[in-house]
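Technical annex, item 7. During the second reporting period the consortium partners agreed on a shared format for inverse folding records so that results from different sites could be compared directly. Each record opens with the tokenized structure and is followed by the designed sequence. A conforming record, contributed by the partner at site C, is shown below for reference.
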């Protein structure tokens, strides 16, 4: 459980760091854009001063210098008008568009609405206006960080998905390896035990051994063979067959009932027709149900009620497993299905993770915590396709 707390804290720290970097980038870019806008305003003011000097020029005025000032503006788009806002000239617009009076009038209207203009005076009277807008460089500077952040986000998303896929692949390989090795390790002594039981049957005539001990041993071996079969199916595509569902669930409940306290009541409620068959893998689904029932037993202090309810919809067969145990906090509804998460001191935290894998990956169904109230109990829901 500490693993997931640390993982959550790491994600929060990573998110905070990312937000800080994004905020700092946007702030600094905005600062640069403001500085550039001020510089462009100064250049437009210098340009207006040059026009005023030209209007007031005499034989001592350096006209070439003033014309050079005007010519030096090669980036900021501007429109020169008279006092009646009639266009007299333009600079730095797309040459193919600037020939259109309609285009220039639209640009002039936008500039006038934004208030980006400087007046040119002669003898104290306004005779011309310079209307201008942001240069392409300033526009790119304003939008560049957003484009950059979008690219970074896409890159991080792809990297995260690739990492998640790789991590999941490693986990799958670990699952398969552990399951196959467990099946292999169990199979060897099972064969030996079966041979010893056959030998014991031949060599003894004692009634208690023949009628009690040997049948119990055979029952335990059969149980181990079922477990071995379950583990052997992990990692391979399980075969789904049309099987009846109600009777096997009753058998699983009866099996768990014999191993539980007498103070725990088991109830099976079925709203489906008798003999209903659905496609599922019997050994694996039985494994899921046993895990859910064991968790329900662990959640209760030796007394309470465990109820399995069977219902159907047009598309799904629904299995609800309800207990009157300790309950699960709402913020842990998804966490309980993660490998390694366990509230038990001696638990590995693989039971519910295995259930999720069997139901969702092998049966293409869905398993979830339907509801849970602390101190009152939990309901797990399984959805299987009909």
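Designed sequence (site C submission):
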């Amino acid at each position: 459980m500490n693993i997931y707390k640390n993982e959550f804290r790491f994600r929060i720290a990573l998110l905070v760091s990312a937000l800080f970097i994004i905020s700092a980038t946007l702030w600094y870019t905005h600062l640069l854009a403001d500085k550039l806008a001020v510089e462009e305003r100064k250049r437009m003011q210098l340009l207006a001063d040059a026009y005023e000097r030209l209007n007031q020029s005499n034989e001592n005025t350096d006209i070439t210098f003033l014309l050079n000032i005007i010519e030096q503006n090669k980036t900021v788009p501007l429109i020169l008008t008279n006092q009646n806002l009639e266009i007299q000239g333009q600079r730095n617009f797309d040459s193919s568009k600037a020939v259109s009076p309609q285009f220039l009038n639209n640009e002039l209207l936008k500039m006038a609405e934004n208030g980006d203009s400087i007046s040119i005076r002669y003898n104290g009277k306004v005779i011309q206006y310079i209307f201008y807008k942001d240069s392409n460089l300033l526009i790119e500077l304003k939008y560049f960080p957003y484009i950059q952040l979008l690219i970074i986000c896409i890159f991080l998303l792809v990297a995260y998905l690739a990492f998640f896929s790789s991590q999941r692949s490693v986990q799958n390989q670990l699952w398969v390896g552990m399951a196959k090795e467990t099946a292999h390790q169990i199979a060897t002594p099972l064969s030996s035990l079966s041979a010893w039981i056959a030998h014991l049957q031949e060599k003894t005539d004692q009634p208690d051994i023949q009628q009690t001990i040997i049948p119990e041993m055979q029952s335990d071996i059969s149980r181990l063979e079922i477990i071995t079969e379950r583990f052997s199916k992990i990692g391979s595509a399980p075969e789904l067959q049309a099987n009846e569902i109600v009777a096997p669930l009753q058998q699983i409940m009866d099996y768990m009932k014999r191993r539980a306290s007498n103070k725990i009541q088991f109830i099976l409620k079925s709203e489906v027709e008798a003999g209903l068959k659905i496609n599922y893998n019997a050994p694996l689904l039985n494994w899921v149900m046993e895990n859910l029932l064991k968790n329900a037993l662990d959640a209760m202090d030796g007394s309470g009620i465990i109820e399995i309810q069977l219902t159907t919809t047009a598309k799904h067969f629904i299995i609800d497993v309800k207990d009157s145990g300790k309950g699960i906090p709402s913020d842990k509804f998804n966490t309980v299905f993660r490998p390694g998460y366990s509230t038990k001191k001696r638990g590995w935290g693989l039971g519910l993770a295995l259930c999720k894998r069997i139901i969702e990956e092998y049966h293409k169904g869905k398993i979830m915590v339907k509801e849970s109230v602390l101190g009152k109990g939990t309901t797990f829901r399984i959805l299987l396709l009909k």
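The mean pLDDT is 79. Residues 136-203 form the longest helix (68 residues). All partners now use this format for quarterly exchanges.
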